Amino acid sequence: MELTENKERLEQCRERAKALVSQMSLEEKIFQTLFNAPAIERLGVKAYNWWNEALHGVARAGVATVFPQSIGLAATFDEDLIEEIADAISTEARGKFNLQQAKDDTDIYKGLTFWSPNVNIFRDPRWGRGHETFGEDPYLTSRMGVRFVKGIQGHDEKYLKAAACAKHLAVHSGPEGVRHGFNAVVGRQDLYETYLPAFKACVQEGHVEAVMGAYNRVNGVPCCANHELIEEIIRDEFGFEGHFVSDCGAIQDICDGHHVAATYKDAAALAMENGCDLNCGKMFYFLKQAVEEGKVSEKRIDEAVERLFATRIKLGVLDRREDNPFDRIPYTVVDSEPMRRLNEEAASRCVVLLKNEGGLLPLNLSEIRTIGVIGPNADSRRALVGNYEGTASHYWTVLEGIQDYVGDRARVMYSEGCHLYKDRTSGLAAANDRMSEVKGVCDNSDVIVVCLGLDASIEGEEGDANNEYGSGDKPDLNLPGLQQEVLKAACESGKPVVLLLLSGSALAVDWAQEHVPAILQGWYPGACGGKAIAKILFGDVCPEGKLPVTFYHADDVLPDFEDYSMKGRTYRYMENEALYPFGYGLSYTSFSYEKVYAEAASERPETAKSCGPDAASSQEATCSQDAACGPDAAGSGCPDGKAAAVTIRALVKNTGSMAGAETVQVYVKIPGQGTPNAQLKGIRKVRFAPGEEKSVEITLPREAFGLYDEDGHFHVHTGEAFVYVGGQGPDRRSEALTGQKVHCLTVSIGGK
């Protein structure tokens, strides 16, 4: 849809909403600002529950396709796939909604307003909700977030297929245990350079319909009553035109947790007056009294309700069914065979091959008589799905996937090995009660697949985990319980061992990197996860995932969990060497890069030259003076309007014997003291047959060469910058793990 058409359609929806709201009483309007909005029968308005979830499939409302958790989808680095999956989710959503409406079911989780995606930055691997995100990088999160929003909302000229919501604004990534009263202290530079870019992209490129506020305060002000975040930044600066919703219970926290308001009435007034339109909770019940006492204007109530009804009008839920093409989507699309095929494909693309010493993988089934499958996540459905999940009609655990794949061609022996985090699997047994079984399976197996990691009982949302780890956050980065002992026992057997990690976050598996020949990171791969992983283990599918987060050697290299400064965090600012770096992932095939060069694509000439194989050592080169573009120029180039761009071209070839996909990654390093490490600024997923070569083109806009200063003002760098092109990041650890160097270009960016 063209921008002008968007504007015209939006204005029509607003006018229609305004006319409808003008017929409501104050009390009727206030009740419409609650997530469980009641019917207004005299106006023909049905009851509507705004609360629905679709993080990786329609959640909490019966059967739906359970796709891989968001962090796994991020590992695909595949924008097109993300939109395809989001489109599939919204197709199922419409099919379910149409059935529910026909049966007059307007309960919670039955609407078309989905509080997804979560575009918070996974800044610390201990955060329990990090697996809901697209990882630690603002650029990758932005790209995935935008395409997810587009897939959910669709491309119809008149109607939204469903409504997406970018959450949680802002500076929100733990600790979970104190989120209801926590004050995230952040500088302007980190705010604009790390925590806001994905929200900005979802608003400006994705035209996201809703934004959700976080529980915490930012620099002393609760996010759901934060005038600067909601009105000045998201609306005025970024141009957001949808509705703003509180996280569930967050407005009550303004009083009970943050102690910013003395009463619930005052908390409701603060939130409403500072831009919150919809309350997930009960606090907006107090708005009538707040209006009567002059603490909230009725005009502001009107504005909020008009925004909410504009969304419902865009969704077409107030129109005749025959007018809306999405009303014709049948319930039979839910859990259909095409959905299962897409789900399995997504699961296979998520898997990251971390190590493959001696080419142990893929396994040659013709040479194997017995396969040992060991570990608490081997036959765990919970380890497939993460959180905010739906209900699948069929789950393939790793054990089931291997059993189905192998059939009668080999025997599969299984041991749970140990509890996920306790010291015994049975309460009446002695500690380590499965170790003899583990050793027995190892003794009788030709190859051993050890499936370890986490699940959402260990890492998750505060209040969801309900376990002795507490609060949903991880206490450290180690394998919990007796898992490490089980892994050591498998390795001591002398048999070939494959370690499969199912987790939603990074684990410190240094011992495994040193002693285990093959390691795979499978994330929470969805209901078809075991089926997809089996095909990777036996070579039907080539692994292609890349890490969307850094794997650290230990948590003692991390800054304090409650410190929201980015110094020392993520691949962009860390000073220590990673165990497995961001952007890293091996393959069963190999790729070469030739004819890598840069072309100017603007009125201001840029020049580029290769900086040679040792150019990474020159990153400390001094930079020329930055050209300040002012506080409002972020994302728009410099004031003269001549937006420059640099196009990177490379000839990429599959030099191996297996079909596979390469993630072409482009990083930019702005030289100078105190500037971030090289940052991801371009990605392209490309598929190759064996021996096939393709020309790949990635254009970097002028903003890719800009940074924010301490005051949050954007500056486009002028002078030389370094551009790195390859299938990994430009760090030395990636080079050591892969044996490959990335190409480095020196690009000269012109001034005004």
What labels would you give this structure?
single chain, 752 residues, alpha/beta, TIM Barrel, Rossmann fold, Immunoglobulin-like, 3 domains, six-stranded mixed sheet, five-stranded antiparallel sheet, globular
What does this structure look like?
- This protein is an alpha/beta fold and 752 residues long.
- The protein folds into 3 domains: 3-331, Glycoside hydrolase, family 3, N-terminal domain (TIM Barrel); 340-573, Rossmann fold, CATH 3.40.50; 591-749, Immunoglobulins (Immunoglobulin-like, Sandwich).
- Helices cover 28% and strands 17% of the residues.
- It contains 21 helices and 25 strands.
- The strands form 7 sheets. A 6-stranded mixed sheet has the order 9-14-13-12-10-11, with helices on both faces. A 5-stranded antiparallel sheet has the order 16-25-24-19-20, with no helix packed on it.
- A hairpin with a 2-residue loop joins β6 and β7 (221-222).
- It starts with a helix and ends with a strand.
